[in-house]
Amino acid sequence: MSTYTGAQILIKLLERQGIDLIAGMPGGANLPMYDALYDSAIRHVLARHEQGAGFIAQGLARVSGKPAVCFGTSGPGATNLITAIADARMDSIPLIAITGQVPTSLIGTDAFQEIDTYGLTLPITKHNFLVRSAEELLDVIPTAFRIASSGRPGPVVVDIPKDVQTESIPVSNWPDPGQPAPLPKIEASHIDRMVKMVIAAKRPLFYIGGGIIAADAAAVLRQLSERLSIPVASTLMGLGAMPSDHPLFLGMLGMHAARYTNMALEACDLLIAAGVRFDDRATGKVAQFCPEAQIIHIDIDASELGKIKQPHLCLEADVRCVLEMVEERLPDKPPSNWPSQIAELRRQYPLVTAGEDNPLQPYGLILQTARLLEEEAIITTDVGQHQMWTAQAYPLNYPRQWLTSGGLGTMGFGVPAAIGAALAEPTKPVICISGDGSVLINIQELATLAEENLNVKILVMNNAHLGLVKQQQELFYNGRKCAAEFNISPDLTAISRGFGIPAYNLAHIEAPLDLLKTVLNEPGPCLINIPIAPEENVFPMVPPGAANHEMIG
Amino acid sequence: MTMPISAPHTSTTHSTILTLTVNNHAGVMSHICGLFSRRAYNLEGILCVPFDNGQRSRMWLRINEQDRFQQVCRQLEKMEDVITVECEGIDPDGMNTALTYFNGTR
Predict the structure, then answer these.
(1) CB spacing of B77 vs A123 below 8 angstroms
(2) Taking the complete model, does pTM exceed 0.90, yes or no?
(3) Alpha-carbon distance A270 to A233, whole Å?
(4) Residue A365 burial class via C-beta count within 10 angstroms: exposed 0-12, middle 13-18, buried 19 and up
């Protein structure tokens, strides 16, 4: 019987779990893990900040749909990971964060780089562990993977004291890798009731979200939607589930929806809420959300059912299974005039995308980028105006094409998530659309990007402002612009070149579209700075706290 | 947010006692209390006793959440270390017995 250290057990279990890539940063308390990694075939990507490592792993997980792993040391390593972990929690991403901890004997003594990682990550994880012995790892690691990938996915933290990493124990039997738990059983009577409600509805509408992506339900959603001509509105997290140009697709709902989208929701008499959580950015004032509608809510997380709005029918189930069962049982239904009502709304109240041909305007940059790309790209964004413009206008066409920080709204997500996406899909172009505020947060990951020489293009919409802050101050604070403007704008192209990444400023180029076309289709990383007029705002906009029909612009 | 184990109200008509069976390890109490504080659920009292050779604990939570009662239960059921959540058969004033005991030994 061979003996293994805790660190070797950890690495062996990760290998058995199918992990072939880890993003992380070493430090005093996780050195034994890195020593064990030295002997492993697992590839390690060295981030330049643990938050970067967390988001690189998120990029991997969001693109692959499988749990991804990041490493950090104790103390600041763990606190730096927290934003990426919290982000994974809000967006239901299976992230496994493994942190070093000071030796067990020093826990509670305020030792060097000691922090209560377990306590800190308790409210932002699906579950967390402080491992007390090497033996425990044999149970904890597969369990962590099971938890992260079961039901509604989410992050798990495993905190491992240094003495547990170095403790040697004999291991004769390796546990099976952790797998997602079986899906919950669906009550046939609920499906029957759902079918009846759908048949009875005159103006049914799908309200879909990240759950559709997580459950791999996009195909059956489209089938069902087409068969019964049910239009589909998506949250920020659900984009890509329906092809953007599908006649039944209404785009994103809520705060920055097209007018016709929110108006269609206003008019529907049956809302099929599938894999969504009635987030305030989607619903606006909840009491006035879909006022005429009966509501069917399908979610695998029972605690989401009735959390915000009490549905008429709750299905605690995998959304793909439900839609498939409904599809099977649903009789054909005579066509109604609902699709033509929708088409009319779309005609009267479209999304206005000004400057479509001009790459120096937000919609122009987004639409021209999509047009000039020779193959479909994975799109990541940061958070702010650029994110909302992209969500509104970029033609997203397949699940997992779209990586954005939805729930937590983390500026700094875009670049490291793009690195993770490119690591997961090395042959696909990855475009990170960012802003000059966001890109500075985690700018250090340009070093990681240069080192890995990945196919990531960073497009920075640069308006020398925290744009969405500026917009809200203009609209809701009587134009009292405070702390929204950058008086110093760093030369992002010089910074990028300093990291060894080619960069261009689109303002200084005579034929910007030609340059875009060349750069976007070349392999390797690149940063492009695009000056955007600070007057550009994201419209329409529902004021925070207002009902979705009270749109500005 | 503070979450004291408060003295029982004079009237406890809105209180319910939930009986939880949980895994017994350091941190379970933090998980439970953390849930109540971060979701702003009213938790009026906690009693916790280990059983099953210290493998598990039984926890009594006196809560005051009529409108969100189902939410509280579902959130609790979702936690990895919570094995069962039951809400029947216990008199909400039952915890007063414990208070009487503490008062008597003060």
Answers:
(1) no
(2) yes
(3) 13
(4) buried
* Nearest by Cα to A465 from A511, A409, A532: A532
pLDDT at A334: 85
Residue B6 is predicted with a pLDDT of 40
Helical packing angle, A385-393 and A467-476, nearest 10°: 90
For residues A44 and A320, give the distance between their C-alpha atoms in angstroms, rounded to a whole number.
Answer: 34
Q: What does the alpha-carbon distance between residue A262 and residue A243 come to, in Å, rounded to a whole number? A: 19
Which residues from chain A sit within 8 angstroms of residue B71, using beta carbons?
Answer: 303, 306-307
Find the CB nearest A122 among B31, B74, B77.
B31
pLDDT in tens, B66-105: 889 999 999 999 999 999 999 876 666 777 777 788 877 6
Contact B58, B49 (CB under 8 A): yes
For A276, what's the count of Cα atoms within 13 Å in the CB-facing half-sphere? 32
SS3 state of residue B80: coil
Residue B8 has pLDDT above 60, yes or no: no
Going by DSSP bridges, is the β-strand pair B16-23/B56-63 parallel, antiparallel, or unpaired? antiparallel
- Contact status of B77 with chain A (Cβ, < 8 Å): yes
A168 secondary structure, DSSP code: E
* CA–CA gap between residue A387 and residue B58 (Å, rounded): 47
d(CA A325, CA A329) in angstroms, rounded, equals 6
Tell me what ipTM this predicted complex has.
Answer: 0.90
pLDDT over threshold 80, residue B28: yes
Nearest-5° Cα angle at A388, A488 to A90: 100
Q: What is the pLDDT of chain B when averaged over all its residues?
A: 83
Place of tokens 């529902």: A542
> For every residue of A4-61, which 3-state class applies, written as one string?
EEHHHHHHHHHHHCCCCEEEECCCHHHHHHHHHHHCCCCEEEECCCHHHHHHHHHHHH
Cβ separation of B78 and A302 shorter than 8 Å? yes
B87 touches B16 (CB < 8 A): yes
pLDDT at residue number A382: 98
The stretches in chain A having pLDDT less than 70 are none
Q: What is the pLDDT of residue B89?
A: 60
Q: Summarize pLDDT for A435-471 with one digit per residue, the tens.
A: 999 999 999 999 999 999 999 999 999 999 999 999 9
pLDDT at position B92: 66
B30 touches chain A (CB under 8 A): yes
